[in-house]
Amino acid sequence: MKVNFFEILSYTIALITLCPYVIVTYLPKSTIAASLFILMYLINPVYCVMVGIVASKDVKNNLVYIFLPAIIFIISYSIIFKSLEFGFIFYGFVYLIISTVTLLITLYIKKRKEELYS
User: Fold this and answer.
1) Are the C-beta atoms of 54 and 8 separated by less than 8 Å?
2) What is the pLDDT of residue 118?
3) Contact 80, 24 (CB under 8 A)
4) pLDDT-derived band of residue 3, with 50, 70 and 90 as boundaries?
5) Which residues span the domain enclosing 92?
6) What is the count of structural domains for the chain?
7) DSSP notation for 15-55
8) Among 8, 87, 94, 95, which residue carries the largest CB count within 10 Å?
9) DSSP 82
10) CA 68, 69, 75, 79 torsion: positive or negative?
11) What is the pLDDT of residue 1?
12) Burial class (CB in 10 A: 0-12, 13-18, 19+), 73
C-alpha cells in the first residue's frame, strides 16, 4: 500500500487541526479539557506511531512524514489558542520523538526479519 504525501498531510490536518477546533468551538466548556486531554495523550500519539510505521515503508521518500504531526500540531494549536506556549512546542517535540522511535523500531524489526529468513 503506497501512501502519498497529500494523503498523510490531509489525515494529519484533519486529526490534529480540525478535531481540536471542533472541540473548542462546539463542545461545552466543562468537557473541553477532558476532550483535549484524550486527544493529546491518546489519539495523537497513536497517530504518530502509525505515521512512523508508514514512513518506514520507504524511508528515503517518506522521511518527511514523521515531521508533519509535530509541525502541524505546533502551528494549529498556536492558532486555535491564539498563543505560542512552550507546552505546545514540547508536545510537538514529543510527537516527533514518538514518530522517530517508531520508525527506527520498525526498521530494526524489518532488518531482523530479513536476517532471520535469508
Assistant:
1) yes
2) 76
3) yes
4) confident
5) 5-117
6) 1
7) IIIIHHHHHHHHS-HHHHHHHHHHIIIIIHHHHHHHHHHHH
8) 95
9) T
10) positive
11) 64
12) buried
